[in-house]
Amino acid sequence: MFYGKGISDLLPQLHDKYGPIIRIAPNELHFAEPEAYHNIYNANIRWNKDPFIYHSFGADDASFGYLTMEEAKPRKAILASIFSRKQVIDFLPCIHEQIDHFCSILGRNDQQGQSSNLLFGPRALTLTIITILMFGQDMWQALESPDFNLSILRSLNDSLPAFTILKWFPWVGHVLESLPVWVNNWLWPSHAGLRRFQSEVMEQVVAIRSGATKLENSRYPVIFRDLMAAQIPFTSLYSEAQTLLTGGIENTSNTVMWGIWHLCHDKQLMAQVQAELQAIWPDPQVYPPLSVLEELPLFMAVVKEALRLAPGIPHPLTRVVPAQGVMIKGQFIPGGTVVGSSTLMVNRSAALFDEPDDFRPLRWLKPNAKELNSHLVAFGKGPRACMGINLAMAEVHLILGAILRRFDIELVTPGKEDLVWRECFIPYFSQEPARALFRPRAGVVAM
Ligand code: HEM
């Protein structure tokens, strides 16, 4: 796994060779069949998260890192309110404003004859949105960064390969952290990226905690206002900031990128989606209600297909079987065993989806689509599934919708290699980012 491959490259090969249940570590089983996935992750399951993975991020005392439901419950209660559908709807004017700003930069780039960065552009936008929701203000001005290449985004991306090694050898991280950053950078740049990301986050949390950054002024919900009111200890505030930033930036923006990239390879479908959007969105500057966008059949199918194909979190999200043991896909698994199944086993299952690696939104409009819905597991399933789903879905619909409504898009790097990624818990893109020209469509005024 250290030679340029991630676990999700190897799992399909190992399952082909050894069958649907394989032992991938001394005490860890991985399951390939969708039914097994649904046995492990569903609303009735309260199994603990596996410390080996979940305590390798340095954010043990945060929503994502808490191992048991009991520990996670109070934090989830605070976040659940802010990530509720109602609060996300209240927050929409802010999302609209940031999308408008983003689109104005895409248009400006085009006016200057320049393409835009499809990897870091949407990331800069989702970073801005989650930052405003967390801290009540745009801390990093990511959208203003040349080519959206902001240091915190670059550091976050560069840090991903560190996960593969730190998972197995956490002591390596502790040793490196005791060294000056420049030595760390020289020895292992990826780990230095992680340190840079963490120190930028730490700086913001310190400023908030000391009162140097005021949280009171925002007219929108502010996550850290609620966390501070609940008197969360400093280390936990910092862990939560890391968690929400990493959770809130890349998965959502990758989904947008996946949708755009695939539509650019199917111009006919792109034109149909744009016509569908235009019919309910006559003035490109005035957003339709989110619920109207969510009900457009073809657009909804594109969103689902982008969610299905974008890798999301491809690493198996492992759980510990309770003491009495459990049945998974008809097989007894003893207590204490660590079990997991990557979302890719379901989202890319050939048994569920014809040509599972192809972008075919029309599959979501067929008579069996209702059944397929339960197999769209990008956000996970069960009590530890994604807490940010309402925000993420609003962002994907609005960002993708606004871009398609406002621009004709042409990839300037149309090769398949554009979306090559490697599993480093989430996908890591080591190649030059995909780029596209965003040409304003008729009726779109410069913003
Ligand atoms: C398309 C976008 C997204 C995808 C595909 C996605 C996917 C996931 C998945 C699969 C999990 C389950 C992890 C596990 O089992 O341990 C998860 C958890 C989580 N996500 Fe997301 N996510 C997305 C967007 C977001 C956003 C925008 C936020 C907001 C900050 C967010 C916050 C969280 C949190 C806090 C958890 C931890 C929940 C828990 O452990 O109880 N996610 N996400």
From TrEMBL:
InterPro entries attached to this UniProt entry: Cyt_P450 (IPR001128), Cyt_P450_CS (IPR017972), Cyt_P450_E_grp-I (IPR002401), Cyt_P450_sf (IPR036396), Cytochrome_P450_monoxygenase (IPR050121)
Cofactor(s), by name: heme
Gene3D superfamilies for this protein: Cytochrome P450
Instruction: Give the top-rank taxon of the lineage listed in the UniProt record for this protein.
Output: Eukaryota
Detail which positions bind heme: C386
SUPFAM superfamilies documented for this protein? Cytochrome P450
For this UniProt record, give its keywords in alphabetical order, as a comma-separated list: Heme, Iron, Metal-binding, Monooxygenase, Oxidoreductase
The GO terms describing molecular function are: heme binding; iron ion binding; monooxygenase activity; oxidoreductase activity, acting on paired donors, with incorporation or reduction of molecular oxygen
The family line of this record is:
Belongs to the cytochrome P450 family.
Q: What is this protein called?
A: P450 monooxygenase
What is the native source organism of this protein?
Answer: Aspergillus eucalypticola (strain CBS 122712 / IBT 29274)
